[in-house]
Amino acid sequence: MIPGCPWFFPEQSLEPPGGEFASARKGKSMSKPRTVFFGIDISKEHLDLHQLPQDMAARFEANPEGISKLITYLKRRKPALIVMEATGGYETNLAAEMVSAKLNVAVVNPRQVRNFARTLGILAKTDSIDARMLARFAQEVRPEPRPLPDKQEQALKALVKRRMQLVEMLVAEKNRLSRVSSVKVRDSLNRSIEFIKQQVDELNDQIKNAVQCSPAWREKDNLLQSVPGIGAKTSHNLLALLPELGKLNRRQIASLVGVAPMNRDSGTFPGRRMIAGGRKAVRNTLYMATIAAARFNPTIKAFYIRLRNSGKKAKVALTACMRKLLIILNTILKNQQQFKQSFA
How many other C-beta atoms lie within 10 A of the C-beta of residue 1? Predict the structure, then answer.
């Protein structure tokens, strides 16, 4: 164990034997440092770190003191890139601290890293293995670091996600209510439904106030709601869950959300085009908005009818309309202009 550094594994050392520090002590010229990549696997209690190409591992506590030690360790090594997975919120504070420390960090989709590990024939999964895979993903794929949301954006996202959770609970309770015969259970479910409805109403007010208190969000909200089929809830969900809207081109935004059709061809066989990946919560929001837009938005309605008349199935036509609606919303925010029927 390294004196004064109890969070390192006993078999590891801060510097490889005979490395640049050893050369400096002997009075020799220091060799050019290699590019360093890090992967961090995040759990509730620990932060497992792996460093490449040195192939070194370490573990830190997942608390403010452990994060501080981790940041200090990383800053000393000046990594080219640090990669961690999105883990349902555990990564938020750590990523924010790294950005504040001016470290290049990329938060990636866990599915990408898992697929990457499978291509290497690595099926085992532990915290240390995951950290090494993240480091190797950083070294070989080199995902682009993206700006992290500020505290105001994080707060809005948290409110929107909580509302989504409560809506799911509300649907589940209503489904249970339709299947029970016991009077006492029915009363319990009715009380639960009323309580959840109150919570949803309170969150709706908090989200609305948060948007209205921000001039930038208020302007975007007005632009988005100028599109027929886009209501307040859809607009707020997009502001919170898709902050890139209006900042990317049409292909990038469609791919990010997961509504870009992918080829499935093989030889002379033309496979069906399918959508995959992306942000499921945004896609669900967009799907419900598209159903409304197919009835009330003249541009989307005409596009849907044209696709159906050409023989497209309803689901395929709706998916194409989702992509078109998303591109319209992206264009509106990019150009800062209200919806016009001329959008095509």
Answer: 11
Look at the alpha carbons of 79, 85, 90, 92 in this order and tell me if their dihedral is positive or negative. Answer: positive
pLDDT in tens, 83-96: 999 877 778 788 88
CATH code reported for the domain at 151-213: 1.20.58
Q: pTM of this prediction?
A: 0.71
Give tens-digit pLDDT for 53-100.
999 999 999 898 999 999 999 999 899 999 999 877 778 788 888 888
Burial 139-166 (b: 16+ CB within 10 A, else e): beeeeebeebbeeebbebbebbbebbeb
Q: Which two tokens stand for residue 245?
A: 């809207």
10 prior amide bond cis, ω within 30: no
CATH node for 20-140: 3.30.420.10
Q: Sketch the domain layout of the chain as residue ranges.
A: 20-140, 151-213, 217-264+272-344
